[in-house]
Design brief:
alpha+beta, Jelly Rolls, six-stranded antiparallel β-sheet, 20 strands, 21% helix, 33% strand, globular
């Protein structure tokens, strides 16, 4: 109710009337707007004009993943801060001061807030601060003069979105101070509302829907042909994902349609975790279910919780209800979504790739999108529907 009250205070009663109609038309856009309304409510008053810290968003985490856009991972915690890149004609920079979180992984990303595409990213290992140690990072326009860890963004960007991520850990978002990019003097911090094109542009939405529609058509054709595994996945990187994706993750994804079966069974060989016997592997992997139209998440199962069957395979059943793993089978419910679902398999940080891993295969795929099974063999998920 407090979120609705904030929405009405911002947009008036007409906003309340329009809200259900807008949700039916574009649920992803509505979730972005409501998420920002929740963050406005939580922002404190009376801070130093150059201090942006109080304007970090409310956390995106396992508490309410269904209320957050852009397919959040439920064992992670995210904070978002959208800022103008200029104060009038004066370019701005931002000093980010924090404490290294006790976590499996943490990072800072900078995005073009208008497009949702990543422009710079630093993982914990790039920043180099030991757990509990202080660190400083600068987000600034690309060019000479950067010192230390830097998120360099294109000078022509109008708004940047900073995202603080923690996977399998906890910590507070860092302090952010606005600066004059040329002099380093404090500058006014003016957080802004932004609806990225990935949720407001009908052309982009149509293109994204076309990809999922084509994949579902392929599933139907394979079912008609009697193939044993008609559900095939594609893989992509953050640079090709206008939904505030993590640059250190490679994603395998496939749409699932409850109309094609009461449940879907997905199987793959899980990737090795770092540090493996040869020092290779991923730092984290997970399987999450989201809604194609909503771009939110209903549930995830992460590497430490996944049951592995006697053959060393990870088996998932997506269908009515949820339940604890049984006999090596992991369960995810269909969720509350209004249309096709999307199953997303994340592999985090494959900078030192293992044989057959996503990162080692992507060098041969410049555009960053390809059929997953053609790249990574048994590590690629496949599946089938059950009546």
């Amino acid at each position: 109710m407090r979120v609705l009250a904030a929405w009405v205070s911002r947009f008036g009663l007409i906003g309340l009337i329009v809200l259900p109609l807008a949700y039916a038309w574009n649920p992803g856009l509505v979730l972005v707007a409501l998420f920002q309304a929740r963050s406005w409510m939580a922002a404190p008053a009376g801070l130093d004009p150059a201090d942006c810290t109080g304007d970090w968003s409310v956390p995106i985490d396992a508490a309410t993943p269904y209320l957050a856009p852009f397919f959040p991972e439920t064992r992670a915690s995210y904070r978002v801060l959208t800022l103008p890149a200029k104060d009038g004609d004066r370019p701005l920079a931002f000093r980010i001061d924090g404490v290294a979180a006790p976590a499996r992984y943490w990072s800072l990303h900078a995005y073009d807030a208008a497009s949702g595409v990543v422009v710079a990213a630093l993982a914990d290992i790039d920043i180099g601060a030991a757990e509990g140690a202080k660190f400083s990072v600068y987000a600034r326009p690309a060019g000479p003069g950067g010192v230390g860890p830097t998120l360099a963004f294109p000078p022509d960007i109008e708004r940047i979105a900073l995202v603080w991520r923690i996977y399998a850990g906890q910590g507070s978002p860092p302090r952010v101070t606005a600066l004059d990019a040329a002099t380093g003097a404090p500058a006014p911090c003016r957080p802004v509302f932004a609806l990225p094109a990935s949720v407001r542009d009908p052309t982009q939405a149509a293109a994204r829907d076309a990809v999922f529609a084509a994949m579902l058509a392929e599933q139907r054709a394979r079912i008609a042909a009697g193939e044993a595994a008609p559900i095939r996945f594609r893989a992509r990187r953050a640079e090709n994902t206008p939904l505030f994706a993590n640059r250190h993750v490679v994603y395998a994804f496939a749409p699932l349609d409850p109309a094609l079966g009461e449940s879907a069974e997905i199987t793959f060989r899980p990737p090795p975790l770092k540090p493996g016997a040869d020092g290779r592997g991923v730092r984290y992997w997970s399987v999450c279910l989201g809604g194609v139209r909503e771009t939110s998440t209903s549930a995830c199962i992460t590497d430490s919780d996944v049951a592995i069957d006697p053959d060393g395979l990870a088996r998932f059943v997506v269908g009515p209800g949820n339940g604890a793993p049984q006999s090596g089978v992991n369960r995810l419910g269909w969720g509350w979504f209004s249309g096709p679902r999307v199953l997303i398999v994340r592999q985090l940080d494959t900078a030192t790739p293992f044989g057959g891993g996503f990162a080692s295969s992507f060098a041969a795929v410049p555009e960053g999108v390809a059929a997953a099974e053609g790249l990574i063999g048994d590590f690629a998920p496949t599946g089938r529907y059950r009546p």
